[in-house]
Amino acid sequence: MTRGTIRPDIEIVALAPEDAPAIAAVLADAFREDPAFKLIFANTARGKDLHYHRFMEAWVAHAMEEGNPLFGVRVDDDLAAVVGIAGLDGQAPQWSVRRNLVRFLKIVPGMRLRKALAMAAATRRPADLPNRVAEISMLAVRTNYQGRGLAAALLGHAHGVVVAASSQSHVYLYTTSPSANLFYAKQGYKLVAERQVESAAVFHLLRPCDADTSL
Length: 215
Ligand SMILES: CC(C)(COP(=O)(O)OP(=O)(O)OC[C@H]1O[C@@H](n2cnc3c(N)ncnc32)[C@H](O)[C@@H]1OP(=O)(O)O)[C@@H](O)C(=O)NCCC(=O)NCCS
Known about the structure:
Elements: E1 3-7, E2 10-14, H1 20-31, H2 35-40, H3 50-65, E3 70-75, E4 78-86, H4 101-107, H5 113-122, E5 133-141, H6 150-165, E6 170-175, H7 180-186, E7 190-197, E8 200-208
Parallel strand pairs: 5-6
Antiparallel strand pairs: 1-2, 2-3, 3-4, 4-5, 6-8, 7-8
Helix pairs in contact: 1-3, 3-4
The structure holds coenzyme A.
Residues 30-31, 139-141, 146-152, 175, 177, 179-180, 182-183, 186 line the site of coenzyme A.
């Protein structure tokens, strides 16, 4: 297990395959009220979220299979926050439907399929991004641990990993959480595209690796 520290009181750990169920639980908790997930899943409410939860498990399994590094913060042995990085080698992350077919079939009964397809199209990377971009994904903090600086610390760590890999000029991410925009603006991200799917929006954000966030 690799360890690093951004703030002395926040210890960041590299996550491993055995952490997958805990990572999925963090994602399910953090995104339950996200407009995009509420649009595409019939139910995201705790206890009625079987298909939504399975989606989170599939997302994590896919990230692990792709070899995307995942980092987390534990508080009192609880996984409180996670972040993933894709495309460190300069490749755009691929979500292969064929490879994930069995997982998808388990999720589909709880999905509004037409809305899900529209959302998938809206999350596609803008065509005019710089060539050398890494992608930050699944930044999430359990609701009861939000507001303690965990996301800022994890994102700072992820930026450090991207810079250390030294093959990218920018970091890209998208979010479907309107309130997260302000958070990302504070971390040096600028909006490069916005796409609307009914009541949900997808914000595509970009940050140069050397962005100055000291202001
Ligand atoms: C968005 C999210 C990751 C922020 O996590 P967090 O640990 O609460 O954030 P931090 O405590 O590190 O906040 C860092 C700074 O951003 C600000 N901030 C955090 N969330 C904010 C929000 N929703 N709106 C405005 N500002 C916000 C904080 O006030 C803080 O500002 P400061 O440095 O001036 O004190 C968390 O709310 C979350 O998991 N939300 C659900 C999932 C999600 O939207 N993920 C991101 C999109 S993929």
